[in-house]
């Protein structure tokens, strides 16, 4: 597929940005930060091959068919959908987007403490008791689950830390994150950035 450039598009490609995404924090070596001829071709192929496919399928095609990373495929899928949303005409091709800046879209991570709760499994001395008329009757009581278990609390519980079955408190974690995020605004953005990384 050949792409013809207008003078304006060509000049736009010649202008080099001195920073990549997020003020230079992110740089994708395979795709850069603007719509290149390669990306135009990629977008046009996706548009012909899988225009109405779900998000995950488009990411998979870009990643596998064009040998790009998951992060690059995610960013390009976002930009593909963004360009399409602004130009819904089916006759439109992505040649017009050549030289346009790509919008960064990727996973951000916020460093926080996540509340968890757990159950400890262990063993302690005890006995099962039940009323019966004979040993055989008592055995039947136990087999039917009709006895009671009694614990000797004077004994030591035999348990190890690795026996703890931890569960994340999802609601508590989200509430904590919301409370944390409410503390930030434009005045203390630097403090927020210190707790954020790109994943």
Helical fraction equals: 40-55%
Q: What class do helices, strands and sheet pairing give?
A: alpha+beta
What are the low-pLDDT stretches, counting only 5+ consecutive residues below 50?
10-18
Mean pLDDT, nearest integer?
84
Q: Gyration radius, to the nearest Å?
A: 31 Å
Beginning-to-end CA distance, first to last residue = 35 Å
Q: Count of helical segments? A: 8
Counted beta strands:
6
Query: Could you state the order of secondary-structure elements as H and E?
Result: HHHHHEEEHEEHHE
- Let me know the largest β-sheet: 2 strands, antiparallel
| Percentage beta strand | 5-15%
What is the overall shape? elongated
Strand order of the largest sheet: 1-6
Write the layout of secondary structure elements.
Blueprint: H1 7-14, H2 21-24, H3 37-50, H4 55-65, H5 70-86, E1 108-110, E2 116-120, E3 126-129, H6 135-143, E4 148-151, E5 164-168, H7 170-182, H8 189-193, E6 196-198
Antiparallel strand pairs: 1-6, 2-5, 3-4
Describe this structure in words.
The protein has 199 residues and is α+β, with helices and mostly antiparallel strands. Among the domains are: 7-106, no CATH class; 123-158, no CATH class. It has 8 helices and 6 strands. The longest helix has 17 residues, at 70-86. The radius of gyration is 31 Å and the shape is elongated.
């Amino acid at each position: 597929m050949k792409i013809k450039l207008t003078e304006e598009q060509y000049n736009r490609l010649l202008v080099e940005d001195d920073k990549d995404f997020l003020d230079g924090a992110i740089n994708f070596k395979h795709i850069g930060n603007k719509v290149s001829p390669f990306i135009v071709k990629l977008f046009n192929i996706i548009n012909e091959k899988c225009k109405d496919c779900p998000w995950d399928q488009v990411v998979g095609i870009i990643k596998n068919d064009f040998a790009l990373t998951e992060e690059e495929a995610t960013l390009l899928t976002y930009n593909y959908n963004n360009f399409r949303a602004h130009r819904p005409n089916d006759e439109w091709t992505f040649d017009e987007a050549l030289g346009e800046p790509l919008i960064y879209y990727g996973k951000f991570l916020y460093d926080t403490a996540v509340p968890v709760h757990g159950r400890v499994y262990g063993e302690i001395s005890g006995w099962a008791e039940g009323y019966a008329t004979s040993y055989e009757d008592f055995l039947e009581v136990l087999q039917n689950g009709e006895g009671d278990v009694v614990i000797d609390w004077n004994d030591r519980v035999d348990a190890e830390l690795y026996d703890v079955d931890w569960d994340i408190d999802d609601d508590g974690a989200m509430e904590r994150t919301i409370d944390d995020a409410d503390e930030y605004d434009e005045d203390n953005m630097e403090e927020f950035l210190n707790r954020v990384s790109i994943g």
